[in-house]
Amino acid sequence: xxxxxxxxxxxxxxxxxxxxxxxxxxxxxxxxxxxxxxxxxxxxxxxxxxxxxxxxxxxxxxxxxxxxxxxxxxxxxxxxxxxxxxxxxxxxxxxxxxxxxxxxxxxxxxxxxxxxxxxxxxxxxxxxxxxxxxxxxxxxxxxxxxxxxxxxxxxxxxxxxxxxxxxxxxxxxxxxxxxxxxxxxxxxxxxxxxxxxxxxxxxxxxxxxxxxxxxxxxxxxxxxxxxxxxxxxxxxxxxxxxxxxxxxxxxxxxxxxxxxxxxxxxxxxxxxxxxxxxxxxxxxxxxxxxxxxx
Amino acid sequence: xxxxxxxxxxxxxxxxxxxxxxxxxxxxxxxxxxxxxxxxxxxxxxxxxxxxxxxxxxxxxxxxxxxxxxxxxxxxxxxxxxxxxxxxxxxxxxxxxxxxxxxxxxxxxxxxxxxxxxxxxxxxxxxxxxxxxxxxxxxxxxxxxxxxxxxxxxxxxxxxxxxxxxxxxxxxxxxxxxxxxxxxxxxxxxxxxxxxxxxxxxxxxxxxx
Lengths: 294, 209
Fold this sequence. Notes:
The structure holds two protein chains of two kinds. By secondary structure, chain A is mainly α. Chain A has a domain at 97-283. Chain A is built from ten helices and no strands. Chain B is α/β, with parallel strands linked by helices. In chain B, helix 3 packs across helix 4 (106-115). The radius of gyration of chain B is 17 Å and the shape is globular. Chain B: This is ATP-binding cassette domain-containing protein.
C-alpha cells in the first residue's frame, strides 16, 4: 500500500512539472492572443472618430423610419403655422374659456338659478337680500378666478408664461371674464328681486353689490400687477371684509346717505384702480414690474 | 444663436447662478450636472420663464427684453415637472397651448399628435392618462408652431425606454435646423453638438463638437 502511495505522488509531481514546462513554452506564443483592456484615451479617440458616422447613421435610420411612417418630405413641415392669427384680446378671452371646465359653468348656472329663486321668493325679507348679494357676488368672482389657476403647479404657469400673451394680460382677461359673469349673475338676481314685488330701490340695490365687486376686482388687478397674485388675494380679501363690516354698521344705523357714500367711494376706487392698471398693463406691453412672472 | 452675458440669479441665501459669457449655437446642446447645480434655473432663464438679477440674454444679437413677445413665440419650453389642467383632453390642451402661442393651425396640432403618437388618446382627459403619456403631451405642445429655440428640462423623465429612444432621434433631427437645449443626467445618451457641465451654479465645462 505504502509503495503504491509513493508511486502516485511521483506521478503527480511529474505531471505538474510537465504542465509548468508546457506553460512556459507556450507563453510567448499565447501572448499575442491576449488583449489588454483599452485605456480611457483610446476609448475617447474611438468615440470621437466614430461620432460623425453615428450621426450619419442615426440621421439615415431615423429618416427612413419616421419619414416612411409619415410619407412626408420634411418631418416637421406641418408644425409650421399655416394660419397665425393676429394676437388679440378677444382671441385670448376665447382661449381662457378652455380653462373653465363644463362643470364650472354648470355650477355657475345652478348658482344663478338659486339666486333667482331666492331673490324672487316672497318669503325672503328684503333686508336679507341686501346682505346676501354683496357677500355672494364678490366671493363668486374671487373663487372663479382662483379656479382658473387650480393647477397650482408651477410648471403649468411657466408653460402659459412662455407664450406671446404676457402673463399679466392672461390674468387680466380671466379676471374680467369672471367680473362679467358676476355682473350677469347680480343683474339677473336684482331684476328678479325687483320684479317679485320686493320693496327695494333697484339702482341702490344694484349699487349695494356692484360696489364691493368692483372694489375687489380693481384691487385684485392693481395689486397683482405690482406684488403678485398671493398679495392681491390677501389685500383685496381684507378690504372686502372691512367693507362688509362697514356696510353692516351703516345698514344697522339705517343711514342711507352714509351707505350710499360708502358704495360710491368703493365703486370709484375700484374703477380707478382697474382703469389705471389696465392702462399700465397695455402701456408696458402686458408685463408687470416683474417682466415675466405672475 | 443664444448669447449669455454676465448672468446672475439668486435662488437662495447660499445658492446663486452665475454664468459669464456663453454662446449656444444651432444644434443639440446638452446640460448635465448634479442635482442643485443650477441646470433648471439656467433653463428657466433661457426660456424667459424668469428674470435674471443681472446680465442679459440675446437671441441672434437681440436682447430678450426688447422683443419678449416675439421671442416667446419662438420658444418651446418643457419644465421638469408639469401638472396640466386635469379635466382637459389631450386635444384641448394642445389647442389651448397652440392658441396661446398664436398658432391656430389644425395641421400643426395633427402633426404633433402623430409625431408623439398621441392620436389614439386625443380625446382622453389628462387625469386618465399615465405620467409617461402626460409627459409626451407636454413635450408635444413645445413643438407647436415649430419654435426655433427648444428648452427642455429632463424631457424624457417618466417616458418609457423604447419611446425615449425614439424621441431622442426625433429631437436630434429637430436640432439640425434649430437650437435645442436639454438638461439631462445622462449626456452620453445624446449625440450632441455642445455639452455644458454645471456645478454649484457655475459653468464648469463647455465642450463643442
